[in-house]
Structures are given as structure tokens and as C-alpha cells.
């Protein structure tokens, strides 16, 4: 698995929360992290990577005194059997609360398995599997994705405006597809590096 713990590697195609909220969780980052690791191990998960913007020491544990994070999102990557899975959360103001939300979600899914509905759990997990592009599909250049002519001058402001326009049409919640949104996000990242 190619995910890195720092900085945050948000899964492609997953929308970001624009307005985080307070949570009712009462936990520390260390307890939430230990809890999510325990839940994943109980689930049979391996190769666990908790990716966030929290800087880590050489032993993988976070530095104790870090400034407030601008982005408290977290993505947890792991393998289960032959599947690569990812859970991500940025709904809450605190990193510990986002980790705890993932822990509680995995705990609930483990409950489905314990209560005898493992087929249902496999179907639920298929939604968390990392989407892979079909090998035969040619990856389009960012200019093709956005509809720009070759050599056309594009400003960063125009790129952002066009990204928002296309995202409003291609997002799965707006009638688009995961594949189209993933392609748009990839193209946007590529374009930002070149504009």
C-alpha cells in the first residue's frame, strides 16, 4: 500500500467536509488511535496506515505539542484479505474526533459480522474499497478533462472556477459518477502543478 502517514493523503474522489462540527466524543488522540488500530486488527486488517497532517516522530507516534491543525481530516488505509480499504473522516473540528468516528464505524461493521450477517458486511466493505481505474482505459491529459485547447493559457483562478463548475456536474451526488469525479480530481491536481 502506498499511503503515507504524513502529510494527509485524502482518498481521490471523496468529497471534503466544508463545515466541520463539534462532536460528542470525549477521547484523546492516543486513545482514539489505539482504538482504531485494535478494531482494524480484530477485523483482520493488516498494513495499517493512519494518514493525517499530524507530524510524527520516528517511532510513528505524534509529537505531543503541535499547533492547531488547519486540516483535521484523517484517512485510514489497510488491507483486509485481498482488498485495500480506506476509511476517511473530516467531519469534526478535532483530529481525535475524526479518528474516533472511524473507530466507531469499523466497530459497527464488525458488529454486523458478529451478529451473523457477514454477507451484508462484505457488501458494505465493497463501498470502502479503493477504486482502481480499468487498465485498458487511457488516462486523459488535464487539458482534455477540462476542455482546454492544447497550448491555451489557463490562469489558476480560471482553473479553480472551471473545477467547481465540473465538480457540480460530475459529483456522484449530482448525478455524476465516482470514476468521473476521480478523473476530475486527478486532472485538477495535475493542472495545479503545471499552471
TrEMBL record:
The superkingdom of the source organism is: Bacteria
Is the ATP-binding keyword given for this protein? no
Concerning PROSITE patterns, the annotation shows: DNAJ_2
Name all J domain ranges: 141-195
- Which UniProt keyword terms apply here? Stress response
Question: What name has this protein been given in UniProt?
Answer: Heat shock protein DnaJ domain protein
Q: Which organism is it from?
A: Methylovorus glucosotrophus (strain SIP3-4)
